[in-house]
Design goal:
Oligomer: single chain
CATH topology: Coagulation Factor XIII, Chain A, domain 1
Number of domains: 1
Structural class: alpha+beta
Strand content: 35-45%
Largest sheet: 7 strands, antiparallel
CATH architecture: Distorted Sandwich
Distance between the termini: 71 Å
Order of helices and strands: HHEEEEEEEEEHEEE
């Protein structure tokens, strides 16, 4: 009886600690110690997304999306994920138009930084929305089908549930259902 009570208390404390953890803490833990491959799909996905602005000397510095950007600035997107997969970047311009094709596609390895090629803020000033999509390697086209319906049909059901926490330099995203991830980075720029 005494052992059962101790086990019950330990379970309650463990669940309480997980629930009290911030999304940032959970994501950092997941990408630092990704789940071992057991042949089963992970029960949840996590990624950290940052905007790196390129200086005139070629250096890259993280910048908060709460800061105003300048039209013409060059930047890159940095992603660290807890699962290998295909990373795609889609853009919705300040006029609200979203391209059918991604502006960039690349592969993400578990726990390793992936940095996009150089991108440039161009065209109309205003708010660009950069949709960052991680399609799991072991579930090809599952998340992509969902994203296409989301982008092209504004009334589509949002059946991927995400937890997001943003800091000045990084957005942390968790999908507890393990279906892949999508998040939107908003970049406001002016001439």
């Amino acid at each position: 009886m005494r052992i059962s009570a101790v086990v019950l208390v330990a379970i309650v404390l463990t669940q309480g600690a997980f629930a009290a953890s911030s999304v940032k803490d959970i994501v950092l833990d997941r990408v630092a110690t990704p789940a071992q491959s057991t042949g089963n799909a992970p029960s949840s996905d996590a990624m950290a997304v940052s905007v790196l602005v390129e200086g005139v000397d070629g250096s890259m510095m993280p910048r908060s999306t709460q800061s105003l950007f300048r039209t013409g600035e060059r930047f890159r997107i940095k992603v660290v994920a807890s699962r290998a997969g295909k990373l795609s970047l889609y853009n919705t311009n300040p006029l609200g138009l979203t391209g059918r094709d991604p502006v960039w596609t690349g592969m993400v390895n578990v726990g390793q930084e992936t940095i996009s090629p150089r991108l440039r803020l161009d065209g109309n000033s205003g708010e660009d929305q950069l949709h960052v999509l991680l399609e799991p390697a072991d579930q090809p086209q599952g998340a992509l089908v969902w994203l296409n319906s989301w982008l092209l049909n504004k009334s589509a059901s949002k059946d991927i549930s995400l937890d997001v926490q943003s800091t000045p330099a990084t957005s942390y995203v968790i999908n507890r259902d393990g279906q892949g991830l999508v998040t939107t980075v908003r970049i406001v720029h002016t001439r």
